[in-house]
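Our consortium's second objective concerns turning raw sequence data into structural hypotheses that experimental partners can test. To show how far this objective has progressed, the report includes one record in full. It was chosen at random from the queue rather than selected for favorable results. The single chain below, 296 residues long, was entered without modification.
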Amino acid sequence: MKSRRMIRPGMLGGHLMRRKGQSMEFRDYEYYQRGDDIRHVDWRASARYGRPEELLIKNFVAEEQLKIFVSLDNRASMRLPERVSKMQHALWIAEALGIMTASFGDHVMLHRLFGKNDSGLVQLGRGAPVLTDGHRALLSEESVHEEGVNLRPLKKHLPPTAIWIIISDYYFEEDHNSRMLADAINRKQDGMRWIILIDIDSWPHEKAMLGEGSRKVDGPGLGDLKAEYDLDGHVYAELDKTITSHKDRFFDGINNGTFDRTTWAWPEKPEFHHEDYFRNRFLDEKLIKRIFMRDS
């Protein structure tokens, strides 16, 4: 895989973990903030380069074994569009991460986000770097409405230095489960954890597929009824507003902190080559490069 070249070979771990204080290699300075250890202040650099009221703290980096925990949203909306779904792209991302880390002794733990507690766990590592058909079925098994968010595995598999990646379309209703997930993200923003939210946005592509005019539309929440809609610019504007409000409501419930969000917006056309889009988007993703590359 071309993506394997992103990893720096011959090291204990494939990841540089930033720390304050003494370690292997100096990285940079940052300004002292309340709560930082005063022992890590560089007094000479502060006097030479800082303003009188500011102190500079040294940052060092050390090689560590990489621990990635990936949560895949398995609600009904992730199974759309039917030809190639958002869930398929989520599985591709998870498997690519597993392949990239396995050669260096690291592992990726995959997690079905909704369902019974402690269910839907798959580990990829050196002995098993790719997903089997059984793994894909397990991770993508659709959650039923009554099932809650599956958070218990976080206690065991998300240590303070891990990377937590959540892959979803974030079409969350304002309900107990979405609030529980937002609260969990808030709580896990401690230690040295890095949280990455990947938003797979297929809506531009879906609009292009549907076009305008009278259409029978099937989807989550409609049950067995395929409702007929007259689709035009006004209808799409209202749908855009609804989708945006759902996402904003969820993200507004997350405190500003040590997490990153990236959106994978599919092309605005009825047909495109999904494998090529995924490959290019994955290799160009700055957050992925920051995980595996020294100077990204």
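The partners drew two points from this record. The first strand starts at residue 15 and ends at 20. The mean pLDDT is 82. Both points have been shared with the crystallography group to help prioritize constructs.
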